[in-house]
Amino acid sequence: MCVLNQEWRASSVAWSGKIVKEAPLADDSIHKFRPRKPCWTHIALKVRDIDATIAWYEHHTHLSLLARHQDAAGRGAWIGDASQADTPFVLVCGEFYEGKDPFAPAPHPPLGPFAHIGIELPTKEMVDEFAGRAKAEGCLALGPMQLPDPIGYVCFIKDPDGNTIEFSFDQGVYEKAREVWGAKAEA
């Protein structure tokens, strides 16, 4: 879990068995509230239509819009789990305007078939519900099906840009994290 601190000052923290020095707050920084140590924050995807992408993720997942951004290069959005305000992890979506892609001419292939965004659900029935809705709307890619441990019961659906989203049940990530890292908070 990322520990956040509004006062971000130089100090030491234990991180992955190492002592990591925290960086002092830069005088020219814009944001004062940030993690005290290195933390997962996002996965980024290039999208064709930011509005369609936001609508799709809000309809097909538990995620919601956190913020929108726009500049001369294009439009962006952060989509995440509103229940994780203290430890945010967001999907960053970027729609570049014609001729403004800073990574051009590199291609932006979608995630899949193995590369995917994974969302674990609390019940097998929820996987069936998500798969049923996706099938009815023409975006179910695979499943639902039971795969060997530790994969669990899964279905895969495709977002508007062809990225693969996995919904799973019983993968054991939470149990293993508690076993190995000693997590104490309820999921």
Molecular structure report:
This protein has 187 residues and is an alpha+beta fold. The chain has helices spanning 50-60, 124-136, 173-181, and strands spanning 4-5, 12-15, 18-21, 34-35, 42-46, 64-71, 74-80, 90-96, 117-120, 140-147, 152-158, 164-169. The chain has a four-stranded mixed sheet with strand order 5-8-7-6, with helices on one face. A four-stranded mixed sheet has the order 9-12-11-10. A two-stranded antiparallel ribbon has the order 1-4. Residues 1-20 have low confidence and may be disordered. The chain is 18% helix and 34% strand. It folds into three domains: 1-39, no CATH class; 42-100, 2,3-Dihydroxybiphenyl 1,2-Dioxygenase, domain 1, CATH 3.10.180.10; 109-182, 2,3-Dihydroxybiphenyl 1,2-Dioxygenase, domain 1 (Roll).
